Backbone:
């Protein structure tokens, strides 16, 4: 399993990445790293390895529960995104 956790979102916005107030910032961050995300997703898919992409902030706790849930789900089902 490969998890790409785009952290430090708290440096870009004072709102959770999935809050409507930070949508523009989140989309820009996803676009900035889009090539890396797409390449990792494709390589993982080709290799049959589950891939998860999460945006968050460990400092603020954003995305941490999502990370736990996705890891647990992948361990149970063996599937990624």
Residues:
């Amino acid at each position: 399993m490969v998890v790409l956790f785009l952290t430090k979102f708290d440096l870009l916005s004072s709102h959770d990445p999935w809050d409507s107030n930070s949508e523009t910032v989140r989309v820009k961050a996803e676009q900035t790293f889009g090539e890396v995300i797409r390449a990792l997703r494709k390589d993982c898919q080709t290799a049959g390895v589950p891939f998860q992409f999460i945006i968050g902030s460990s400092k603020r706790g954003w995305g941490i529960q999502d990370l736990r849930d996705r890891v647990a789900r992948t361990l149970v089902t063996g599937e990624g995104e």
About this structure: The mean pLDDT is 91. The first strand starts at residue 2 and ends at 6. The CA atoms of residues 10 and 60 lie 7 Å apart.
